[in-house]
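Sharing a chain and its predicted structure for anyone who wants a worked example. Both blocks are below, sequence first, tokens second.
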Amino acid sequence: MQRFFRRQDRSDPVLSPGKREAIGRLVALARSGLHPRLLACFVGPPGAGKAAAAQELGRELGREILRLDLAAVASKWIGETEKNLRAVIAEAERLDAVLLLDEGDALFGRRTAVSSAHDRYASVETNYLLQALESHPGIAVICTNREEELDPVFLRRCDLVVRFP
């Protein structure tokens, strides 16, 4: 399982007051008990503090951060990516950890017209991950620096989208 993610450093990140406020909203949602699962999307340029904000969220909630290694999860073999994602989500649930998916646009990119078997299968993987995250009873944070490439369906399913200038 360790090959799919790495544990994040739990040191105190340096966040601006605006970012701390956004994290505070997420912490309040998580602690309210009204959301059995929480899906957030952090959007901003490289170096804007998206991963640091996810660290702060984990620290505030007293939870470990599991950062998904997309390169290790993705597979060219049919069915393997879904199996790997299922294992990662199950481990995050078992540990009650915050799941961090960096470079989310790689998994949640706009779906295009299906012109090949590869396109069709990529769409199936995206659909599977959307459903898995929706049924995951924990907290997941997806970070991206290319909001325009995200599938609008994915953004509508997020409980909170935080933009980092």
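Comments welcome. The two ends are 34 Å apart (CA to CA).
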